[in-house]
Design brief:
four-stranded antiparallel sheet; elongated; 23 strands; mainly beta; 1% helix; 1 helix; 293 residues
Length: 293
């Protein structure tokens, strides 16, 4: 069981002579000598055994442990009953933790960005103020942050924090890991690690201004997706969009579900303005494409 866990135990005691043991005392002794006592009451079901409900707490240190359940020698209802005992061995394990990660921008533009990390304990322990770190594949720390004092609203025991990261210098897909190692807790906890990826882009150098020219369509020109390579944005109500991109060869793509996609190869060496004509999307009826026999 987990360290420090609460446990409710029903201890059943019976006498071979079917004596009524109600009012008798049961003791539970830990390896450290701590004693918890409970009184026997009548058991349901009509037999002569009696039950004591006892509430126990697991040790706060991980490792092997045991409880000794004892019915001490005692007089109950005018009869003396000899001692009876039972040993229950068990293992105390650390609490486990889990990681949630969200708000990862991809692609990453610029030298820094922020992600949100959530940590939860299997026993819902208080984790506010604990530190989380993010490292790259080589173990280089990209950033660290602290969990907020209170759980994230709407969750049960999920503590949230923000981590500010320094983006790697090289463009491309980057692998990173979130690591959590609890510190200063009165109960043992296992740390946890979560992996994620993100894409870094080269720092933008030039502006590409795109203007959508409708050709045979009469619909609003906003919210059309415009991409230049990995750089992406949406058009405004006038059908215009601006992107900051790096020098080099890029594919310009224009897309929305109701228009025909447009793809244009660009070589960016300076600030560029381009007009793109768009036509209504061509919806193909599959029946028209079949040959009927």
């Amino acid at each position: 069981m987990e360290a420090g866990a609460d446990l409710s135990v029903a201890v059943r005691v019976s006498c071979p002579g079917e004596c009524d043991l109600r009012g008798g005392v049961v003791e539970v002794v830990s390896r450290d000598g701590d004693v918890v006592r409970g009184k026997l009451s009548g058991a349901q079901g009509g037999d002569s055994s009696c039950i004591a409900d006892i509430f126990l707490k697991a040790p706060t240190e991980a490792g092997e442990a045991e409880w000794r359940f004892t019915f001490p020698e005692q007089e109950v209802a005018g009869n003396v009953h000899r001692e009876s005992a039972l040993i229950m061995a068990y293992e105390v394990v650390p609490h486990t933790t889990s990681i949630a990660l969200w708000g990862v921008p991809s692609p990453v533009l610029g030298s820094s960005f922020t992600v949100k990390v959530g940590i939860k304990c299997s026993a819902l322990c208080q984790l506010g103020g604990q530190r989380v770190e993010i490292h790259d594949d080589d173990g280089v720390r990209l950033g660290e942050g602290r969990l907020r004092d209170d759980p994230k609203p709407g969750t049960e025991g999920l503590y949230e924090g923000e981590v500010h990261l320094s983006a790697p210098e090289n463009a491309g897909v980057c692998n990173a890991s979130v690591s959590f190692r609890p510190e200063g807790s009165s109960l043992p906890h296992l740390g946890s690690v979560g992996d994620f990826t993100f894409r870094c882009l080269e720092p933008p150098e030039h502006t590409v201004a795109v203007r959508i020219i409708p050709q045979g369509i009469d619909t609003p020109l906003e919210d059309i997706e415009v991409r230049v390579g990995d750089y992406q944005t949406m058009t405004d109500s006038h059908g215009t969009a601006e992107l900051e991109v790096a020098s080099g060869s890029h594919e310009l793509s224009v897309w929305r579900i109701d228009i025909e996609p447009v793809f244009i190869e660009l070589k960016i060496t300076e600030d560029t303005e381009i007009e793109v004509g768009v036509e209504p999307g061509r919806f193909v009826d599959e029946d028209d494409e079949r040959m009927w026999m």
